[in-house]
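tool=predict chain=A
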Amino acid sequence: MSVDYQTLCAALYREARLLDDRQWDEWLTCYTEDVTYWMPAWDDDDQLTDDHESQISLMYYPDRGGLEDRVFRIKTERSGASTPEPRTSHNVTNVEVLATRDNEVDVRYNFQTLNHRYRTTDFFYGTMFVTLRQVEGQWLIAYKKIVLKNDYIRQVLDIYHV
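tool=predict ok
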């Protein structure tokens, strides 16, 4: 399969922009129905947890339904962690294609997110491991593992932080 690097990057940049612009419904369209969205935690030995069923994760959604629930809560102000909605700036860097197969591409990239709320700006950064799947001519996220490098956080994390 021929992979256009610029098109892959454009899909990642679009997802980040939609989060920054709070275009929640459009943001959901960046994901496949069967997406796995996972942010493991760091354990006491400074190792990432590797089993979302028996170890702590900072976030885990086994399909898009969990993301849709988060968006519903944000949009209907049923999320105390999201009221008022923060202002964010997502930055995607060092995009690297790791593997390609049939209609999927595995990508690794770094991210930085600035999050401003209640006159305070927080900074989140780390590495994403993403599988993009081509669906009807578009690259959609079918798997996302978020490795948050600054894991000492003062608040509840939500989808817009990463």
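Helices lie at 5-20, 24-28, 64-75. The domain at 5-161 is CATH 3.10.450.50 (Nuclear Transport Factor 2; Chain: A,).
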